[in-house]
Design brief:
alpha+beta; Bacterial polysaccharide co-polymerase-like; 2 domains; 4-stranded antiparallel beta sheet
Length: 360
């Protein structure tokens, strides 16, 4: 009992002392409230001066989407030559979109755009003020990609809304044009390769047809020679009833000199005539289709874009920074803390001076 009661009294005394100290602290602050208000006011003035000095920041955000087969149709190869194995296929239409996204993140493309943007005002590598401006542009450019939504967003921040929208629009247009040129050039190279293969197939078909005609002429000429030697001018059909006569058959001379002569003339007339070349018409149709595809793609390449985004990007109307309310609130909080510190320091100095005066 003797050990328990002092412990309870001790804790009660502590709680009363804490409450008294808190009330006393509030009284000290209230007595020197003008110092606290002055520090808050000074912090508020500093924050307002900072906000007046700092330029407003504007941001442009643009969503990017992959193109679909309808938008790809102007530069999409047709079916010409595919049945014969000479067609050109695009396995994945999103290849243009992914290429554009990679190039938008590319440091090299960003540098090329900035040099292209400077135009005649700059020659050679980026350095000095031009390099600083480019680094500011690169740091304020952000690209985020959503794999689930199959989309991306690109944003640019700056202190001039017109320049910000102009830079972002120009950068998207520059990268889009470069990707279109590169990708479509590869597509056109594939079409040209298919056309060359078709030309080779046409040449081979004509050579083969010519060789077959030559062999046929040689065979008929030999049969004609035999028929002439035997004096067989015309075929005796009653003698040929049970005789099989086919190509490269030694019995063709039985057809007679007259029939073989006409056949030789007919074979001579077939030379250099495409109508008698097997498969030639299909090859020519495939080549014509690929040539039409190449012409159509070249005609539409300037209008093609590898990704979907707004054609015109309007300047932002409202700034995104600095956050005036947050900066003023933080400044007033800091001012209040500094004010309390000043009040306590002043109170401590006065208390010290009072104790020194009593000791004297």
């Amino acid at each position: 009992m003797y050990q328990k009661m002092p412990e309870q009294a001790y804790h009660i005394a502590l709680r009363e002392k804490d409450e008294i100290d808190l009330i006393y602290l509030l009284e000290v602050i209230w007595q020197d409230k003008w110092a606290l208000l002055v520090m808050v006011a000074l912090s508020l003035l500093v924050s307002l001066a900072y906000l007046g000095y700092m330029p407003k920041q504007y941001q442009v955000l643009v969503k990017l989407y992959p193109i679909d087969t309808i938008q790809l149709a102007p530069v999409l190869p047709g079916n010409g030559g595919k049945e014969l194995g000479y067609g050109v296929n695009i396995q994945d239409v999103e290849v243009f979109y992914r290429s554009a996204i990679n190039d938008l993140n590319s440091l090299e493309y960003q540098k090329q755009f900035w040099i292209h943007h400077l135009g005649s005002r700059h020659y050679g590598p980026l350095e000095g003020a031009a390099l600083d401006d480019f680094l500011d542009f690169r740091e304020s450019l952000h690209l985020t990609e959503s794999i689930e939504e199959k989309s991306a967003s690109i944003r640019l921040t700056g202190d001039d809304p017109v320049l910000v929208s102009g830079y972002l629009s120009g950068f998207l247009g520059y990268v889009s044009a470069r990707v279109s040129t590169t990708s479509i050039s590869k597509l056109l190279e594939a079409i040209d390769t298919s056309i060359e293969r078709i030309d080779q197939a046409i040449l081979q078909a004509r050579v083969k047809a010519e060789a077959e005609i030559s062999d046929r002429i040689a065979d008929i000429t030999e049969a004609l020679t035999i028929a002439t030697s035997l004096g067989i001018e015309e075929a005796e059909f009653d003698r040929l009833a049970n005789v099989e006569i086919t190509l490269f058959n030694s019995r063709q001379y039985l057809l007679g000199e007259k029939a073989l002569t006409f056949e030789l003339k007919a074979l001579e007339r077939r030379r250099d005539k495409d109508a008698f070349v097997e498969g030639l018409r299909e090859l020519q149709a495939a080549k014509a289709s690929l040539l039409a595809d190449r012409e159509r793609i070249n005609r539409n390449i300037s209008e093609f874009r590898p990704l979907v985004y707004p054609k015109s990007i309007s300047p932002p109307l409202k700034p995104v920074g600095p956050n005036n309310v947050l900066i003023v609130a933080v400044a007033m909080l800091i001012g209040g803390i500094l004010g309390i510190i000043v009040v306590l320091v002043r109170h401590g100095l006065r208390s010290y001076q009072t104790r020194q005066g009593k000791q004297k």
